[in-house]
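User: Okay, second chain of the day. Same drill as before: sequence in, structure tokens out.
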Amino acid sequence: MERSSFFSTQAGRLVDTPRHSHARFGIGDVVRHKLFDFRGVIFDIDPVFANSEEWYEAIPADIRPHREQPYYHLLAENGENAYVAYVSQQNLVADGVGGPVEHPSVEQLFDEFKAGRYRLRRGLTH
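Assistant: Same drill. Structure tokens below.
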């Protein structure tokens, strides 16, 4: 399998990745965590795990997701708090609520919420 790499500022190193990765969700999608009670809007996607080893090892071994899958950066909310979350694809499902995410940073990254999805601000697209 052909591989490439990218520099992850979170991991502080080059991360090896397959040349092609299949993300189930896209930037602007609203998703929900399968195991924990929070939802959020995706604002970035890593093709494989690209965070620190300390972060990865802090996840209990019995629920630790595998590294070779997309990981999503979310503006997340749980009804009490707003925060940034980093979640594996295997732990996400499409949000069934259909309403906007209540996070103070949403307006900095997105300019429209329509049909259950956010549109990234024009100047922020790749």
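Residues 53-57 form the longest helix (5 residues).

User: Thanks, on to the next one.
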